[in-house]
Every structure is written in C-alpha cells, then in structure tokens.
Amino acid sequence: MRLFSSLCLVLLAFLGAVSAKSAVGDRLLVVLEDESQKALYSKFWTDLEARDFKLSFESPRTEGLSLFRHGQLAYEHLLLTPPKSKGYGPSLTPKVILDYVNAGGNVLLGLSSQASTPSAISSLLLELDISLPQDKSSVVVDHFNHDTTSAAEKHDVLLLNRPEQLRSDVSNFFGGDGTLAVPRAVGQTLGNASPLLAPILKAPVTAYAYNPKEEAETVEETFATGSQLSLISALQARNSARFTVLGSLEMLQDKWFDSSVKTASGTSGKTVNQEFAKQLTEWTFKEVGVLKVFSVQHRQVSVTSKPSENTTQIGEYNPEIYRIKNDVEYSIEIGQYDGTHYVPFSFPSNDALQLEFTMLSPFHRIPLSPTSTTANSTIFSTTFTTPDQHGIFAFKVTYKRPFLTGIEEKHQVTVRHFAHDEWPRSWAISGAWPWIGGLWSVIAGFVLFVLLWLYCEPPKEELERRRKLSVSNVK
Ligand SMILES: *[C@@H]1O[C@H](CO)[C@@H](O)[C@H](O)[C@H]1NC(C)=O
Ligand SMILES: *[C@@H]1O[C@H](CO)[C@@H](O)[C@H](O)[C@H]1NC(C)=O
C-alpha cells in the first residue's frame, strides 16, 4: 500500500512536470466543418501543439459531440470557426456555449466576412453586449491603411500596428512592434456598459464597415466607423472564463503569418500575425494574465486598552473573533502565472490593491502594500484598527482589471465590544483622580466624624451642669 501510494506520488509529480502551459488545462476542441480548411492553418495548429495543447478537430455535425462529459468540461478551450451552413447545429447552441463559459471554459470565436455569421451566434454576442452588423456580408475597409499588394482594389486587407500597451506592464499581453494584416474582418461594436468587455484591436480612424455586395455609389448608413469598430474583442466573464471574438479568422492562416505587405504610402514589410496569434491564444487559453491567491492571513497585533501591561501581544492567525479597537494585521499572498509556473505579482504604480473591512458598507478601505516575496508570490499586507462598532464584518479584497483574472476574497469575522474587565481601571485614568479624591475624602471624613462622635466624652463641668439642670427641673 505504501509502495503504491509513493508510486502514485511519483506519477503525479511526473504528470505535473509535463503539464500544459495553460493554467487551467490543455484540451482544445476545434470546431471545423470543412476538413479542407484545416490545411490553411497548419502553422497555427503546429504552434498550439508546440505549447502542449491537445487539439481535437470535430465537425459540428459529429454525432455525440459534447462540451461536457459527466457534468465536467470535456475540453477547457474551444475554438469555433465559421460554419458553412446556417449554424453550429444542436450540440453547439448558444445556450450550450453560455453554459460552457459559465462552467469556466474559454472560447475563441473566429468570424469571417466570407461565411455569414449564424444569427444564433449574433444573438449570443448581443447578450454579451457585442453587436455585429445586421448586414451579413459587411466587411471592414480602409482606403488609407490597406495592403496594396493583395487588396489594391477592394481595400479590405487592413494593415495595423499591433495594439499599444493596453495598460502598463501587468497586462500588456498583445503589444509589440510590427504590422498586422487583418483581411476581410467583421467589425464589432461593444456596448460601453459592461466592465467585462474590452477591445483588443480597434480599427483605424479611417476604417468603416460596408457591404461590397450593395452596388451603391456612396455608403449611406454605415454600421460603425473608425475606432468605434473593434476587430478583436475580449470578454472576461465574472468567473474569469475568457471569450474572444476574432473578427477575421483568416488572419491566422499560414499565408498571412509572414507575408510581405505594402502599405498605401509605399513602405513594405513582413506581417507579425504569427506572433500576434500566439499572444491572442495565450491570453484566451489562460497562459497569461492569471492571478492566484495562495493564502490570506489576518491576526491581532496588539492590545491597546491596557496601557499598563505589555502592549505588543501577537494573536493567533485567522481568529474568528476580534474586539473593537483591536490592531489587526492582514496579509494576502498573490502569484501571477507566467506560462509555466506562478511568479510574484506586482501591479503598476498607478494602480492599487485595496482591503475593505466591511459590514454592509466598508468601514475601512486601505491600500495593501507589498511587504515580501516568495518564489511564487508577493505578500501584500497592511495594519489597521478595527472600528468602534461591533457586528459581523468581512475582510474583502476585490481586484478586477481588464485582461487579468479577477480576485475576490472575502473572510468573515465577528467584532465584539469590550468585555467589562477590559476597560482600564479607574485609577489608571488621571482625569478621574479629582473625583476619586473627592469620594474617598468624603468617606474618610464621615468615618472620622463617627469615631469622634462615639468615642469623645463631653467635658466634666458640662456633665455637672446638665445634671444640676435636670435636678432643679424635677423640683
Ligand atoms: C513586551 O513583549 C515583547 C515580546 O514578548 C518584548 O520583546 C518586550 O521587551 C516587552 N516589553 C516590555 C516593556 O515588557
Ligand atoms: C513555485 O516556484 C518554483 C521555482 O520557481 C517552481 O518550480 C514551482 O513550480 C512554483 N510553484 C507553483 C505552484 O507555481
């Protein structure tokens, strides 16, 4: 039995060593209806396989195709290519895809203006606040930023710089130099109400969406223009599952991976689509931008009510109860996944990680600062005094940023009031001395008076005089 368990351990360690680069798993389902399309993306598949992904290619018509097995995800990642027919069929309905995302699955949805997007998918995207043009064959064109080699006439192969730093260092997952070719893209517009949505690549200001099949001389009502149009959009659900809408699946084809392109102004060069495809899938399939909380600790660091005693009393870790006006230390250990393992996390200087001490609403909201690092994480901590209010409180850390998985930690504690023996004694308070003095002087005076009254005899002559008085009265 012992041997067996140690064998299991060795096996587990071995499995851990060869595990996928993605933080969540390596099974990727590619839904591809047309087998002949597969060869067009051979470099893309090779790149994914080189990063340890186990690719399964299935047609949406495959019997028994399911994203779930025994109630668990059958694949952690899903790549949807545009279907040839009207939709993906009964095994990939919008509801199934939403359930999949709710269960934590990551989706890369590739669109193409050549194949019209199924209306079920359009309405699914609409639920996520991403709108596609009504016009199914709409394509994004730009008369100033197109490739003059391959789209001299149609102007529908856009040449763009890679997105600039979306945010400083932590989530710059798509940046870099070089030119991207975005052929025949379906533009999307994003609702501005959802904090979960963010564009990855926006169209240039001179771009617009238009339907080449309409033989109109001028474009009257465009779906959207300029940077309103998003060519690639990202949605990170509340459970941190990722959903990327790629407006032009074609840009992942081998021929665009390092093709020579020539801008309208005459400069020519190679595209960096291959590297960008890697960045895009790294983010979507959770190889980057994944944060993990390793531990949360809080404890009492001093007793402030008894100044006469030694005031540095360190409490146990994570007690269930504190008292009002306790000094409390809170620390949280956060690591960031870097493709193979977790490394210490740091946020840019213009950002903050905050701790809230709340009962219905926060009584404290204080920044946490990095105090030490371990091999896999940074420890952020702070010290504060519990408020003068008893009740059920919670330590809360919420950190949600675009392109990073969210952190939401909540630990509930009770805050009690002072016990009767925890107040300082009256004589310890110097302000009370006049009253204590007054009280005790009255008591001492009274006792003195009683003693005097009881034990002091009146003088002899006085007694004589009283006796005489009473005798004469009787006569
Ligand atoms: C209070 O306790 C700490 C730790 O036990 C000790 O280092 C310190 O010297 C003590 N201070 C006093 C005033 O007794
Ligand atoms: C922690 O860091 C070490 C050394 O960098 C690494 O070998 C290990 O896999 C990391 N652990 C986790 C959980 O990422």
From TrEMBL:
It is a single-pass type I membrane protein. GO terms for molecular function: transferase activity. Residues 27-284 form the OST48 N-terminal domain. The keyword Membrane applies. It is found in: Endoplasmic reticulum membrane; Membrane. Belongs to the DDOST 48 kDa subunit family. The chain crosses the membrane at residues 432-456. The gene is WBP1. Residues 316-456 form the OST48 middle domain. Component of the oligosaccharyltransferase (OST) complex. It holds the Pfam family OST48_N. This is Dolichyl-diphosphooligosaccharide--protein glycosyltransferase subunit WBP1. Subunit of the oligosaccharyl transferase (OST) complex that catalyzes the initial transfer of a defined glycan (Glc(3)Man(9)GlcNAc(2) in eukaryotes) from the lipid carrier dolichol-pyrophosphate to an asparagine residue within an Asn-X-Ser/Thr consensus motif in nascent polypeptide chains, the first step in protein N-glycosylation. N-glycosylation occurs cotranslationally and the complex associates with the Sec61 complex at the channel-forming translocon complex that mediates protein translocation across the endoplasmic reticulum (ER). The keyword Ubl conjugation does not apply. Pathway: Protein modification; protein glycosylation. Keywords: Endoplasmic reticulum, Membrane, Signal, Transferase, Transmembrane, Transmembrane helix. It comes from the Eukaryota. Residues 1-20 form the signal peptide. It comes from Exophiala sideris.
